[in-house]
Specification:
Elements: H1 9-20, H2 23-26, H3 36-51, E1 52-53, E2 58-59, E3 70-71, E4 79-80, H4 87-103, H5 105-120, E5 123-124, E6 131-132, H6 146-163, H7 166-181, E7 200-202, H8 203-220, H9 223-239, E8 241-242, E9 247-255, E10 259-266, H10 268-285, H11 288-305, E11 306-308, E12 314-316, H12 320-337
Antiparallel strand pairs: 1-2, 3-4, 5-6, 7-9, 8-9, 9-10, 11-12
Helix pairs in contact: 1-3, 1-4, 1-12, 4-5, 4-6, 5-6, 6-7, 6-8, 7-8, 8-9, 8-10, 9-10, 10-11, 10-12, 11-12
């Protein structure tokens, strides 16, 4: 459950690069003069120039790397930035490399392979099941978060689709196995945030798990992944959805294992992941309910997170890369319907 965010250099910049790659299709007939692919490639080059540490095959958390403030996205509270990045921000680089490699394999395959190799350095094989930990396993033992493993699995699935490298598919499946190990049936189901800690079941872990499962179903056709994606999606919608506002709340707090309370903190990325999952389920099943869910969440989130100043300047009331994850949901909904809702655009 990523609550308080510093401006993570690698994560913010690389996710921007990853997501604006999708904008040409979304904005093809809007008259926009910006070349979004060129912008994405420019930002991507900056990330690799400023953040990549060749001698380690890893990335720094910030630029310049001597800047080591406290990071506030951990279960135990603030921790100081270290020599290399934690997995969560580094995964933004991996995501962008996978997307660009799908567009231009010849140019970006090397970056994708280097990003995959960097991600693999976080794999902890000493605990069962194997899973990706928050910091490189060769440097120290660290906690293992279910949302981190969901992102790693998604990135490896996208890497497989870009390259057809079977090793990447196996790594995605391995991350899925770790994610599945966290499921518990108390409070109706769902995943916690951190391995071994059962104090909450956040939208971030469960949303990423649903998307990863549905990606693996699309690739493999194995029904177990569809079943997992559906049950996780259904848990999110029945537990964390605000039907009146049309958004997804942050987490189900499970106090002492006997009581629960919805944590009504609003972060745009939670709704974005639910929209993605709904669109994918609609594409798989043809069930119009999922499409209506996606449309309802898109409308609700747009009303909740977007506005204009008195001078007509548009703004969002969430962090930029959280909004970019919401954009991914909007973009997939557009791809599924080819309907341009001018209010959301």
């Amino acid at each position: 459950m990523r609550l308080k965010q510093p401006v993570l250099g690698g994560r913010t910049v690389a996710l921007l690069a990853a997501l604006i790659v999708g904008l040409p299709a979304f904005c093809a007939d809007t008259g926009a003069k910006v070349n979004y692919l060129e912008r994405a490639e420019e930002v991507f080059r900056i990330v690799w120039d400023k953040y990549y540490i060749p001698e380690r095959g890893l990335f720094s958390e910030y630029y310049p790397s001597i800047h080591k403030p406290d990071l506030t996205y951990f279960q135990e509270g603030a921790m100081q930035a270290k020599e290399v990045s934690y997995l969560w921000p580094m995964s933004g680089v991996f995501s962008s490399a996978a997307i660009l490699a799908q567009i231009n394999p010849e140019k970006y395959r090397k970056y994708l392979d280097l990003s995959a190799a960097a991600a693999e350095k976080y794999l902890d094989g000493t605990r069962s099941p194997r899973g990706y930990q928050a910091y490189p396993a060769g440097l120290e033992k660290a906690d293992r978060y279910y949302d981190d493993n969901g992102v790693a699995g998604i990135d490896f699935a996208d890497s497989y689709e870009a390259t057809k490298n079977a090793e990447y598919l196996e790594k995605s499946k391995e991350a899925m196995r770790f994610v599945e190990s966290g499921w518990s049936d108390d409070f109706g189901g769902g995943l916690p945030w951190l391995e071994g800690v059962r104090d909450q079941k956040p939208a971030c872990s469960n949303g990423k798990a649903a998307i990863l499962a549905l990606k693996l179903y699309r690739i493999t056709g194995e029904e177990k992944y569809l079943r997992y994606g559906m049950k996780t999606y259904n848990w999110i919608m029945s537990t964390l959805r605000d039907g009146e506002l049309g958004i997804i709340w942050n987490s189900l707090l499970t106090k002492g294992g006997t009581q629960c309370e919805v944590q009504k903190h609003a972060y745009a990325y939670n709704t974005g992941m639910a929209i993605q999952a709904a669109v994918r389920l609609y594409g798989i099943t043809g069930n119009a309910k999922y499409l209506e869910d996606a449309k309802s969440l898109a409308e609700g989130s747009h009303k909740f997170y977007f506005g204009r100043t008195d001078d007509g300047v548009p703004f969002t009331n969430d962090m930029p890369w959280f909004v970019l994850v919401l954009f991914r949901g909007y973009h997939e909904l557009y791809d599924a319907t080819k309907t341009r809702n001018t209010s959301i655009r």
